[in-house]
Amino acid sequence: MVVAFSYLAFTVLAPWQLGKDARIVERNDRIEHAYEVAPVDVSTLLDDGALSDDEQWTRVTMTGQFRVADEVLVRMRSVNGMPSYQSLVPFDTDSGATVLINRGFVPAKADEPVPAIAAAPAERVTITGLAQVGEAADGRAPLDADGYRQIYTLTPELVTELTGTELVDGYVQLAEGAPGALSPIPVPKLDRGSHLSYGLQWLAFGIMAPLGLAYFAYSEVKERRRLRDEDTELAADHGDVAPAAAEVAADSSDADHPAEAPRSAVAQPSAPQSSASRRRSRSVRDRYGDAKRDHYAKLAQRRQER
Predict the structure, then answer these.
(1) Which PANTHER family has this protein been placed in (predicted)?
(2) pLDDT confidence of residue 274
């Protein structure tokens, strides 16, 4: 499990967070650069008929006319934590391309019809906005409700299917104050978030896991060796128990046969209790208290009484 966790930490979890951080940094750099330079004509970005990932967040300008009758709503999108409807209208540019324009949003309320949305201007206008990449469709079918055609994802291909208008791949998010703009979609905050620290944490966890395993394995081996050494010392102490038992039996024999020589004349001095026995005795008392008899302490008491 430790090996599997470390492998995932290095190959999946850390790259996931570090990759998000790298993408956010790149996005922030593009947004900062977009507002440092003048907007470019959208036609310069449409050499391949699409707004690519590398061109996202570029400020663009275009002159042309809205197709007011082809308005489509993106339903129940979250803006600033609140549900909203976003208005999408195709825009015929003077260069000949038709670009989908996100005019902004109007707040939405659950179980209530779509609020009144101001129509886009019908006359020829010049607008400015941010180039964006379209979203992938989520499989939910469009619907007609409250007098609007509505979709669930900001996907130019779906608008093309609903309106019959051939659109470039991608769309433009209309800037605040531009003709036809509603409440503007807020530009992301230029904040990296915590993804970098999360990525470094996963790397640290991937290193710490095998080190922790090695430490616990070392501690377990050390503890087993200590217990083995104690058991060896205790086994050696059993040689003291047998003579002591013989002495007890001799004392009993002296009491039955007083004519024999006194036991004290032939008794050998008892060996002191070993340090291992004392350690084990203390361990037994610490673990079990008085609930478990301590035979070594009892034997030592008998020796002292003699």
Answers:
(1) SURFEIT LOCUS PROTEIN (PTHR23427), SURFEIT LOCUS PROTEIN 1 (PTHR23427:SF2)
(2) 52
What are 169's strand-pairing partners?
Answer: 50
Nearest Cα to Cα of residue 85 among 75, 99, 71: 75
Amino acid (1-letter code) at residue 202: W
Question: 236-284 pLDDT, tens per residue?
Answer: 876 554 444 455 455 555 545 554 444 444 445 554 555 544 554 455 5
CB 17 within 8 A of CB 196: yes
Half-sphere exposure of 209 (CA within 13 A, CB side): 16
| Residue-wise DSSP of 30-66 | HHHHHHHS--EEGGGG-TTSB--GGGTT-EEEEEEEE
The pLDDT tens digits for 108-123 are 887 788 888 999 999 9
Alpha helices (H) in 93-194, listed in sequence order: 156-163
All structural domains of the chain with their residue ranges: 38-174
CB distance 40 to 211 below 8 Å: no
CA 131 centroid distance within chain: 31
| E strand or H helix at 305 | helix 295-305
Which among 125, 135, 121 has a CA at the least distance from the CA of 61? 125
Contacts of 248 (CB under 8 A, 6+ apart): 302
Distances 153 to 96, 100, 143, 186 between C-alpha atoms, Å = 26, 13, 12, 18
In one-letter notation, the amino acid at residue 234 is L
Distance between CA 89 and CA 159 in Å, rounded?
A: 9
